[in-house]
Specification:
heterotrimer, A mainly alpha, B mainly alpha, C alpha/beta, A: mainly alpha, 2 strands, C: six-stranded mixed β-sheet, 9 helices, disordered C terminus, binds adenosine-5'-diphosphate, binds magnesium ion
């Protein structure tokens, strides 16, 4: 029964990882670059939320109303300036610039906000839970995060398939040059895609900050790699793959932790490596690896 | 740099079409040879002086130099990998950590740590083989970040091994020399590895492979069209960098005498390699040398506060990557037309001639 | 700028002194062409002659190192590709380049991104290609080559261009499919659209165009109305070798109304009919990699 519980907890955790992964996956799908500052941006969002809560005294759980739009705007601006300038130089430059951003963000957070661990205080919600039988306990927060993740993925799916902007994003992802020939300003489309990705990463950062403690290094030591592993496990090009990847990663980690507490992270990474060897295109995707 | 004298031979003999480019090209080669001749002489003198240094200064100075040369080795490796083979890794701390722990392991079994350096280096290279097998099919971002995961896996595995000190770290045994002699030995070993590393990279780039590497640096897609060679050249470079970083890790273990997994596998190592290379000038041998000097000065002036040091470095590296992508050395060599390490294929503006040579030889 | 063979009206599309480099390689040397409104011009030339480079430069995908591009008198040389679409230039690129994961209809809707108005609504495009309406929900990747080419044309039409650039419509398609695709061109021309098309398949190009330009190693070697050009002239301009030394000729590649047998090779374009502009052939002798049009 403890194993069943581990799996269930893993599924819950998987929602959080999917939330982290979908922004990374979207940016990679559209711009063909991996944003190495992804995890640190989530931490920035969590710290901003901390500030918002301190100043406005709104409950932390509502901080997203402010933080997500701020982040989306930040994403658009960053894409149109620094990231576009790097993209003009090439993929390698962009990779290096996002890596540089990651280091700068992490150290700036440490410099200005100290290296101490923080958390977003959501009162009793963090410990409230309900039980199924005698062994399985599900925290409301975990359930909320999973539901939010699924809702975000559904919304994103709907946006991409049904809206004009979503169609342009898919067209640019397919063939940037052909999109230009059809009259699309791909830079603007990149900006939109990045804004969405930043919005989701902000949401993920907030969820993480409510879920557990964080500090300035959490973004690189944990979140970036988890997001990337979820993307690879699930396979690119499909948001459901991202959810599946997040859940598989979460389950692997929880089952690993069940086996030996120190094995939690390692178990997820070994699953990632196994998938990479056996099925490099991910479990859901049929596409070639880019 | 005893190879300087062969310059004409290399340019004219191996690649007759290069020599046939006419007087303009010839002039550039000559100029580059002259500065290289001086550079060669200077290098010999410098190495001699550096080798004599422990008799002149106290061990705190040689200790700093040890750090300097370790950085130089790592940055030169990363530059070879990214600047020439087009492979951006953010996980080469894997080989540093492995090199360090291999030395610890060998010393535990009674080997002198200094004797253990070459063995630990080779072991890191051996680990590089399956790692390459795993990551070789990945491109750019995937490659970069998968290397990071691999470094993390290595660290997590070592944390599980209690005989290696688990997560709390382990002292290096077998260093029985007096502190003064130990400092000098460490210094000499580091200097020797640094000279070997740079001479090795120089030789690699001057060899026939150098042409392929330069082509990959300038245009990977174009170089791909010449067929399967790109893959094998990239593998060779990857393994060389695994060896180089393994050696740097071995030296790191000896100079630290106590190692902790989170420090030995810290991504900061790679961040330093990346920033040094970008700021100094990616895709040139001189770049990492200049970069390490700049870096070291920064480190000494800003080290009072570690976070500021990283913030400044990161911002400068971002700015350089976008607005001056050839780095400090690129600006200098452009302005004064000097090349300290003529690898033969540098006599044209980067990117043009080698590619066309390749393209032509590919389609007869 | 010689706009030979045109009616004298000011050209809608005017390319003057265009030079384009790919790195060190110069793909176009001082190319000048003018296409008057409502006419169909064809650009022929061997593989690698620079035809695609020319169209892509007109569409804004390459920046020229010299020269200018004008649309209806307005200099558009510095405009980004998407702004040129808004100005009225649409390119059907070589290899079709549809968005494979988008449906047929979505491909057309993307083509209408510039929001130019005109007669080419999505419905009008469905009327032009009868089969398309029923299969509009199908993914572009699932279509056959000829169907994809039709969608690519439809996508360009959806932008309601004034100038339509077509790059090798026949590439990789069966002759019967090619004929079907080309059969739609007169309809487009009749609607007043100005067309510049590129072909390696000479007979196809000569059949639809009122004016042909021949490109050889990045230079215009011949230009004129098909009726005034002989097979030998075209062959010489196309390959850069004298017609006599190229034994295989291409009688069935010659357009209707062209003299079947060529004069001596020395009677190059310079001494030919005055309607033919373009410099004498000066390119080096070159091995023909593919005879034009013989497969039709
Ligand atoms: N993107 C590019 N980069 C480098 N060289 C190119 C590129 N595009 C075309 N070329 C070169 O320019 C020349 C003209 O090519 P292209 O315009 O495609 O010819 P065509 O369409 O007539 O076959 C060829 O030698 C080709 O190799
Ligand atoms: Mg072409």
């Amino acid at each position: 029964m403890t194993w069943v519980n581990a799996v269930i907890q893993g599924v819950m955790l998987g929602g959080l990882y999917a939330l982290f992964a979908c922004g990374l996956s979207l940016m990679f799908g559209v711009m063909k670059v991996i944003n190495l500052a992804h995890g640190d941006l989530a931490m920035v969002a969590a710290y901003i939320a901390l500030g918002v809560v301190t100043i406005t005294h709104v409950p932390a759980i509502w901080s997203f109303v402010l933080v997500v739009p701020i982040f989306a705007a930040l994403g658009y601006v960053l894409q149109r300036t620094l990231l576009q300038a790097s993209l003009n130089r090439g993929v390698i430059t962009t990779l290096l610039v996002t890596f540089g951003l990651s280091v700068v963000i992490e150290n700036a957070l440490q410099q200005f906000l100290s290296a101490n661990s923080r958390e977003l205080n959501i009162g009793s919600l963090v410990s409230d839970s309900f039980s199924i039988g005698s062994q399985i306990t599900i925290a409301y927060l975990d359930l909320i995060i999973l539901v939010v993740a699924v809702a975000v993925l559904l919304g994103l799916q709907y946006f991409l398939s049904s809206s004009r902007s979503g169609r342009m994003i898919r067209a640019v992802a397919d063939d940037r040059e052909a999109a230009q020939l059809a009259g699309i300003d791909y830079r603007h489309v990149f900006g939109i895609a990045t804004a969405i990705a930043f919005g989701t990463v902000a949401l993920a950062g907030l969820a993480y900050g409510m879920y557990t403690q964080f500090d300035p290094t959490t973004g690189t030591t944990a979140l970036l790699l988890y997001a990337f592993e979820a993307v690879v496990i699930g396979g690119l090009g499909s948001l459901w793959g991202t959810l599946a990847g997040g859940i598989l990663l979460g389950v692997a980690q929880q089952v690993g932790a069940q086996y030996h507490a120190a094995d939690q992270v390692l178990a997820g990474q070994l699953l990632f490596l196994i998938i990479l060897v056996l099925r490099p295109q991910g479990i859901t995707s049929r596409r070639e690896l880019a | 740099m005893s190879a300087v004298g062969q310059d004409t031979q290399a340019a004219g003999g191996q690649h007759p079409r290069v020599a046939a480019r006419g007087p303009a090209a010839g002039r550039v080669v000559t100029r580059s040879r002259r500065s290289a001749l001086w550079a060669g002489l200077a290098a010999v003198v410098a190495i001699a002086i550096l080798g004599y240094l422990p008799y002149l200064v106290f061990s705190d100075t040689t200790g700093l130099m040890v750090q300097f040369f370790q950085l130089l080795i790592m940055a030169s490796m990363w530059n070879l990998l990214a600047g020439y083979a087009g492979l951006v890794s953010v996980g080469h701390q894997a080989f540093i950590g492995l090199g360090a722990y291999f030395v610890v392991l060998l010393a535990m079994h009674g080997l002198s740590p200094f004797t253990a350096i070459p063995i630990a280096t080779a072991a890191a290279g051996v680990v590089g083989l399956p790692v390459w097998w795993l990551v070789s099919r990945l491109r750019s971002g995937y490659f970069a970040i998968t290397m990071w995961v691999i470094a993390s896996v290595c660290m997590l595995i070592i944390i599980q091994i209690s005989s290696l000190g688990s997560g709390t770290g382990i002292a290096l045994s077998g260093l029985t020399q007096s502190p003064t002699l130990l400092a000098a030995d460490t210094y000499w070993a580091t200097l020797a590895v640094a000279v070997l590393a740079i001479a090795g990279i120089y030789a690699l780039l001057r060899s026939r492979l150098g042409l392929a590497l330069t082509a990959i640096r300038d245009d990977e897609a174009g170089a791909k069209s010449i067929g399967g060679r790109v893959g094998s050249v990239q593998r060779l470079v990857f393994l060389v960098t695994a060896l180089g970083c393994g050696a740097a890790g071995a030296l790191y273990a000896i100079s630290q005498q106590f190692i902790v997994p989170t420090a030995a596998f810290d991504v900061s190592f790679t961040a330093e390699m990346i920033f040094i290379t970008i700021i100094g000038g990616i895709g040139t041998i001189e770049g990492p040398i200049i970069g390490t000097i700049v870096f070291f000065i920064l480190q000494q002036t800003l080290s009072a506060d570690g976070t500021w040091y990283w913030i400044v470095l990161g911002l400068v590296a971002i700015a350089v990557a976008i607005w001056a992508p050839r780095g400090i050395w690129g600006l200098v060599s452009e302005k004064f037309g000097i090349r300290l390490f003529p690898v033969g294929y540098y006599v044209w503006p980067a990117g043009e001639q080698p590619r066309r040579l390749l393209a032509r030889s590919a389609r007869p | 700028m010689t706009a030979a063979g045109t009616t004298g009206a000011s050209p809608l599309l005017e390319v003057a002194g265009l030079s384009v480099h790919h790195g060190q390689l110069q793909a176009l040397h001082d190319v000048s062409i003018a296409v008057p409104a409502g006419q169909v011009h064809a650009m022929i030339g061997a593989n690698g002659a620079g035809k695609s480079t020319l169209l892509r430069t007109i569409a804004g995908l390459h920046a020229p190192t010299a020269g200018s591009i004008r649309l209806d008198g307005r200099d558009i040389t510095g405009l980004r590709p998407e702004r040129r679409v808004a100005a009225g230039i649409a390119l059907v690129p070589e290899g079709r380049r549809l968005f494979p994961s988008l449906s047929v209809e979505e491909n057309l809707l993307i083509g209408a991104s510039s929001r130019r108005t005109g007669e080419w609504s999505i419905d009008a495009i469905y009327d032009l290609f009868g089969w398309m309406r029923d299969r509009r929900r199908q993914r572009a990747a699932q279509l056959s080559g000829g169907e994809q080419q039709a969608v690519a044309i439809g996508r360009a039409l959806a932008a309601n261009p004034r100038v339509l650039l077509l790059d090798e419509l026949s590439l990789g398609l069966a002759p019967v499919v090619v004929r079907r695709i080309y059969a739609t061109l007169p309809q487009l021309a009749a609607s007043g659209m100005t067309i510049l098309l590129v072909e390696q398949d000479v007979s196809q190009a000569l059949a639809v165009a009122s004016h042909v330009h021949c490109l050889l190693e990045g230079r215009v070697t011949l230009a004129g109305p098909p009726a005034r050009l002989t097979g030998a002239q075209i062959e010489a301009a196309y390959f850069g070798v004298s017609a006599a030394s190229n034994g295989n000729g291409y009688g069935n590649g010659s357009p209707p109304g062209t003299p079947a047998s060529a004069g001596p090779a020395s009677a190059g374009p310079a001494s030919a009919s005055p309607a033919i502009s373009g410099p004498a052939i000066s390119g080096p002798a070159r091995q023909a990699d593919q005879p034009p049009g013989v497969h039709l």
